[in-house]
Amino acid sequence: AQTVTQSQPEMSVQEAETVTLSCTYDTSESDYYLFWYKQPPSRQMILVIRQEAYKQQNATENRFSVNFQKAAKSFSLKISDSQLGDAAMYFCAYTGWGTSGSRLTFGEGTQLTVNP
Amino acid sequence: EAQVTQNPRYLITVTGKKLTVTCSQNMNHEYMSWYRQDPGLGLRQIYYSMNVEVTDKGDVPEGYKVSRKEKRNFPLILESPSPNQTSLYFCASSIARGSPDTQYFGPGTRLTVL
Fold it and tell me: Which pLDDT tens digits describe chain B residue by residue (114 residues)?
């Protein structure tokens, strides 16, 4: 079974600085996607960024980028120029295509605080 | 607007009183799924459906039922709710079609069982 681990329950960053959230996963599948979802106090799950495993290039979305290390099964999220609106719970998630279709497996989450 | 909707958004009920949480998507997605979120556990899949009339259990299916009679709707049924089902519930959908893809989430339903 696939597992996703986020070893940082809480992180904090100063406004305008850069922060990196860590995520590791375990899988035996070769075709899979990795995601970072953001959950603000509204509780809505918002897709931040996704990475297809077959792509060597790291995904980037404006101030958000990932460091995808496939051999090490590591998938970290870097937030540059942090803003107050980035404060939220961040979940790393995995989806493959096994017998249960496109199931998302989530990590435990990292609570990010942005200090003014 | 492409979206997943859930109703109700908030619900307080008592033990044993049957309830249904509705989920609907307007993106013609094949794959739909229910998750529950509990502190320190992330989100865990309850049930999923790969197409109309095709449903199966996820990681935590005990105490829940689902149905998929139409492609756009995937209701979650709690026939005899218990306090340990107090949680935040999310419905999600994706295109599927035989490969992993992005799942889009509804706004969540906060359920309290007294």
Answer: 889 999 999 999 999 999 999 999 999 999 999 999 998 888 999 999 988 998 999 989 999 999 999 999 999 999 999 999 999 999 999 886 666 778 899 999 999 999
Please count the residue pairs, one from chain A and one from chain B, whose beta carbons lie less than 8 angstroms apart: 68
Residue A91 DSSP class: E
Upstream peptide bond of B8 is cis (omega within 30 degrees of 0): yes
Task: Dig out the tokens for B60 from the structure.
Answer: 């935590």
Q: A21-24 long-range contacts, Cβ below 8 Å, gap at least 24?
A: A21/A76, A21/A77, A21/A78, A21/A79, A21/A90, A21/A92, A21/A110, A21/A112, A22/A74, A22/A76, A22/A110, A23/A74, A23/A75, A23/A76, A23/A77, A23/A92, A23/A107, A24/A72, A24/A73, A24/A74, A24/A75
Task: Pick from A2, A29, A94, A102 the residue to mutate for testing the B interface (most B CBs within 10 Å).
Answer: A102
Residues 6+ apart with CB under 8 A from A108: A5, A6, A9, B40, B41, B42
| A72-88 exposure pattern, b = at least 16 Cβ within 10 A, e = fewer | ebebbbbbeebeeebbb
Largest alpha-carbon pair distance within chain B?
41
